[in-house]
Design brief:
This protein is mainly α and about 270 residues long. The protein is built from 14 helices and no strands. The longest helix has 23 residues. The C terminus is likely disordered.
C-alpha cells in the first residue's frame, strides 16, 4: 500500500514538472521567469526518480532522471545534468545494460566538455565492467579501459592508467592477442621500475609477459620454465604447484598455464593444479 502511495506521488510530481516545463517554454514563461520554473521542474523530476527507486520501478526512475538531465542541460547546468545521467544509469542497469551505458556515455561527454577527464575515466571503467559482466562483450570493454587509461594519462594519474592497461593486457591474453598483452605488461612493468613503491609489482608483470611469450611462441619464453624446454609435463606441473604454494593461482594464470601445458603434452592437458 505504501509502495502504491509513493508511486502515485511520483507520478503527480512528474505531471507537475511537465506543466512547469510547458510554462517555461511559453511566451509568458519567457517574459516572467520561465528559467526558475525549469529549475523547479528539474527538482521535481529528480524527486520523482528517487521515489520510483524506492518502489523499485527502475525504468520509471531512469526516465525521470533523464528528464531532469535534459532540462538541466537546457538551462546550462552541466554538472547537475551529468549527475542525473549517472543516477539514470544506476537504475537502468537493473533492467537494461544498454540504456545504462548510453546514460553513462552522455555523462562522459558532458564531463569531457567540462575538462573533467578523471571523472570521465572513472565512468569509462564502469561501462567496461558492464560490457564485460552484463553484455559479455570483451572487445567493447577493452576499448573503454583503453579510453580510461588515456584520460588518466592526460591527467598525470599514471598509477590509475596502469591499472586500466593491466585490465586490457589480461583480456587481450584471454582472447589470445598475445602480442598486445606482452607489450602492455612490459610497458607497465617498466614504468613500475621507476617507482620505489611499485617496483615489486614489476616482477609479476614481467612474469605474465613471459607466460604470454610462451603461449605465442614457446621458444621465446624457454628461460622462464625449463620444464617446457625439456618437454617434461611432470616437471612443469610440479613447478606450477610450487608456485601456487607461494602465490595462489588466479583464473588468468591458470588459463595461461593450461595453454602452455597443452604445448608440452596436449593429451595430458587436463588436471593441472
Amino acid at each position: 500500500m505504501e509502495a502504491q502511495s509513493k508511486e502515485r506521488e511520483a507520478m503527480q510530481l512528474i505531471a507537475e514538472a511537465d506543466r512547469k516545463v510547458k510554462y517555461s517554454q511559453s511566451f509568458l514563461g519567457a517574459l516572467f521567469g520561465g528559467s526558475s520554473k525549469l529549475e523547479e521542474a528539474c527538482e521535481m523530476y529528480t524527486r520523482a526518480g528517487n521515489m520510483f527507486k524506492m518502489v523499485k520501478n527502475w525504468n520509471a526512475a531512469g526516465n525521470a532522471f533523464c528528464q531532469a538531465a535534459r532540462f538541466h542541460l537546457q538551462a546550462q547546468n552541466k554538472h547537475d545534468a551529468a549527475s542525473n545521467y549517472i543516477d539514470a544509469s544506476s537504475t537502468f542497469k537493473k533492467t537494461d545494460p544498454n540504456d545504462a551505458i548510453n546514460c553513462l556515455a552522455t555523462a562522459i561527454e558532458i564531463f569531457t566538455d567540462m575538462g573533467r577527464f578523471t571523472i570521465a575515466a572513472k565512468h569509462h571503467i564502469t561501462i567496461a565492467e558492464i560490457c564485460e559482466t552484463e553484455l559479455m562483450d570483451v572487445d567493447k570493454a577493452v576499448a573503454h579501459y583503453e579510453q580510461a587509461a588515456d584520460y588518466y594519462k592526460a591527467e598525470e594519474s599514471n598509477s590509475l592508467a596502469n591499472k586500466c592497461l593491466l585490465n586490457v593486457a589480461s583480456r587481450a591474453a584471454q582472447i589470445e592477442q598475445y602480442s598486445k598483452a606482452i607489450e602492455l605488461y612490459e610497458q607497465v612493468a617498466t614504468s613500475c621500475m621507476d617507482n620505489a613503491l611499485l617496483k615489486f609489482g614489476a616482477r609479476e608483470y614481467f612474469f605474465k609477459a613471459a607466460l604470454c611469450h610462451f603461449c605465442m611462441d614457446p621458444l621465446n619464453g624457454k628461460a622462464l620454465l625449463e620444464a617446457h624446454d625439456e618437454q617434461n609435463v611432470d616437471a612443469f606441473t610440479k613447478a606450477v604447484k610450487e608456485f601456487d604454494s607461494v602465490s595462489r593461482l588466479d583464473q588468468w594464470l591458470t588459463t595461461m598455464l593450461l595453454r602452455i601445458k597443452k604445448t608440452i603434452e596436449p593429451e595430458e592437458a587436463e588436471g593441472l593444479c
